[in-house]
Amino acid sequence: MSTPYTSFTEFWPFYVCEHSKATTRRWHFFGTATLFPLLILSVTYSFYLLLLLPLSGYGFAWYSHYFVEKNRPATFSYPLWSLLGDFKMFGLMCRRKMDAEVLRCENIMIGKTLEDITLEEDIDGM
Predict the structure, then answer these.
(1) What DSSP line would sit under 45-80, residue for residue?
(2) What is the 3-state secondary structure (H, E, C) of 25-41?
(3) Could you read off the pLDDT of 47-91 as tens digits, one per residue?
(4) b vs e for 21-42, b when ≥16 Cβ sit within 10 Å of the residue's Cβ?
(5) Do residues 105 and 16 make contact, with C-beta atoms less than 8 angstroms apart?
(6) What pLDDT does 44 receive?
(7) What is the CB neighbour count within 10 angstroms for residue 78?
(8) Which pTM was predicted?
(9) Residue 125 per-residue DSSP state
(10) What's the confidence (pLDDT) of residue 126?
């Protein structure tokens, strides 16, 4: 990273590009999805299960960064924004909109604006 991000809006395209492989996103999705049952079980049965929340959430995600994406998790540099990014990515994946978001953010990171992308789609559609 050359410059630190000063807002989540600036950070989001970087975060998405750090999750460019679908397999990485699936591992993240699985880790995030396991948080909800663990949270319910910890309230219902034992608060000690709360200790598994970070292991579940970060374990699957970090595995995917090291062995699938082969990059360093953004969590180390931007812990809060990475957590927010993970939940935003989870929501987009639930609505099946994450693949389109990856393409949009990749274009942003290489310097294309939303207008450039729309113009290209209009030209391709002719």
Answers:
(1) T-GGGGGHHHHHHHHHHHHHIIIII-S--GGGT-HH
(2) HHHHHHHHHHHHHHHHH
(3) 898 999 888 889 999 999 999 999 999 998 999 999 999 999 999
(4) eeebbebbbebbebbeebeeeb
(5) yes
(6) 93
(7) 19
(8) 0.81
(9) T
(10) 46
Is-contact 16 86, C-beta < 8 A?
A: no
**Confidence at residue 1, expressed as pLDDT on a 0 to 100 scale:** 45
Tokens 């000063």 sit on residue: 6
d(CA 74, CA 81): 9
- Smallest CA-to-CA distance from 93 within 81, 83, 101 is with 101
Chain mean position to CA 88? 7
Query: 90: left (phi > 0), else alpha (psi -120 to 50), else beta?
Result: alpha
Question: What's residue 98's pLDDT?
Answer: 97
Indicate if the alpha-carbon torsion angle 74, 76, 78, 79 is positive or negative. positive
